[in-house]
Amino acid sequence: MAADAHWIALLKSTVDSAPASRFGDATPALVEHARSSVLGRRMLALRLESESPALFGLPAAANDAEWIERHPAALFSGERLRGAALDLGALAFSPALRARVERSEVLRLREAIGAARLSFALSTDPWRGSLPDAVRHCAFAGLARVLHDAETIAELVRQRGRIELFTYASAQHPLFGERVALAFPPVPAGERRDVWLPAATVAQYLEAAGESAAGAHL
User: Fold this and answer.
1) DSSP codes, 58-78
2) From CA 49, how far away is CA 159, in angstroms rounded?
3) pLDDT at 190
4) Rounded distance, CA 158 to CA 182, Å?
5) Phi and psi (nearest 5°) for 204?
6) What are the two backbone dihedrals, phi and then psi, of residue 127, each rounded to the nearest 5 degrees?
7) Phi and psi at residue 77, in whole multiples of 5°?
8) Contact 14/48 with Cβ under 8 angstroms?
9) Are 175 and 60 spatial neighbours (Cβ–Cβ below 8 Å)?
């Protein structure tokens, strides 16, 4: 596929999958309606371009398109990127997930992130036995605060995974980071970007996800 075709696919995926909250006061129904017409999609693209001129700019298409071939996850749909965030968040919290043994807590975790994703996290050691103490403390403390509610657990796990995914993508290429960011709602200014997972773990996960949708646990 030529560089310009890669770029068109990237922008199409970005417009198709950006959450409604990325388009100002527009309702989800209005955004979906706009996506069904050429004029509506152009207006949505202009809105995203105002947030991310580097990603949508012609200089980027001409000079940096080769990074898409090196990082095919940039072409993932928004659904897959958001699913990847849940997967990576579950991996990041896996030490704390393994410590929950009460039936009510386990059932709540399954409700929050799904049985398959929970099993995936429990059966994987992202740090290969070298879990940093700071990560262990943050994982245990963070999960303990939200165990009362499945929806809050899911949001905590998703937020952690989004940080892991965005930080990894940004380190690979700034435009990859912007693509990932636009697949999620806007985040508060000054949000912490400390990572828990080794970069190699995220890279391995994305490679597997690119090879098989099942590998992404979506």
Assistant:
1) HHHHHHSTHHHHH-GGGGS-H
2) 24
3) 76
4) 15
5) -65, -40
6) -100, 0
7) -65, 165
8) yes
9) yes
Tokens for 203, please give them: 């890279």
Cα–Cα distance between 195 and 110 in angstroms, integer?
A: 24
Phi and psi angles of residue 193, each rounded to the nearest 5 degrees, phi first: -120, 30
**Type and span of the H or E element at 35:** none
Cα 80 to Cα 214: distance, rounded to the nearest angstrom: 11
Amino acid at 46: L
Amino acid (one-letter) located at 72: P
Q: Which residue type is seen at 54?
A: A
* Nearest Cα to Cα of residue 204 among 90, 66, 84: 84
Q: What's the pLDDT at 216?
A: 40
pLDDT digits (tens, 9 = 90+) for 11-46: 899 999 899 999 988 899 999 999 999 999 999 999
Q: Do residues 17 and 75 make contact, with C-beta atoms less than 8 angstroms apart?
A: no
- Please, are residues 78 and 162 in contact by the beta-carbon 8 Å criterion? no
With beta carbons less than 8 A apart as the criterion, state whether 48 and 42 touch: no
